[in-house]
Amino acid sequence: xxxxxxxxxxxxxxxxxxxxxxxxxxxxxxxxxxxxxxxxxxxxxxxxxxxxxxxxxxxxxxxxxxxxxxxxxxxxxxxxxxxxxxxxxxxxxxxxxxxxxxxxxxxxxxxxxx
Length: 114
Hints:
Elements: E1 17-23, E2 29-30, E3 44-50, E4 60-61, H1 62-69, H2 76-89, H3 95-103
């Protein structure tokens, strides 16, 4: 049984989140019940998106997870869970960058010429 995880609302519009996964090669939609072959030769990608405004979380795929994070042998449900976790944690992850830009007047458009 898959452990339930609650998805946070959209950080932009507070809209309802949705999750979708695809076979990374064929781009066919796959679902959490889809089982990997014994050789783990399929690659998957998943992301969360807002049903209301269309904002998307980061696209998480098995190839990048293996190459950069050394996470291997994942099922579709595993990739979907990681995508949801990244969606849930993104709200304030870069806040310090925003605050730093605020001090320098970088969050205004158009910017004043220097």
